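This entry is passed on directly below:
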Amino acid sequence: MPLLEPYFRGAAVSALMPEPLREAMDSHGLTPRHGAVLPQLLAADGPLTVSGIADRLQVSLPTASELVGGLARAGIVTRAPDETNRRRVLVSLAEEYRPLLESFVARRGEPLLRALAGLPVEQREGFMAGLRAWVREVQQ
């Protein structure tokens, strides 16, 4: 893990980020913590509540609310009231940023896909089982 950590830090992430997304993040003073919200929204099957974002990122509700607020001011996400519960806010990616984020996530995954392609099938299956187990542990 320590050897992979630089891949998840500032310059490495910024270099692969599509220019319009990087420009929106930079011009609004958004940080990597704000950016961590975006893949969660992309991976979700629909909008997330601020509470859902807080749970996924393992941060407090006020922190998640602050992150969403910054992203909304930048126009990267949209907020809408939940029609079934007016106290809740639903957060979605702004449609113009969805393809940019999809492209960014795909580019970030390329080294992993190349590494997997170089493994024999049984090792690849074992590696993927290990990753799924790790995700389950982290999410608990």
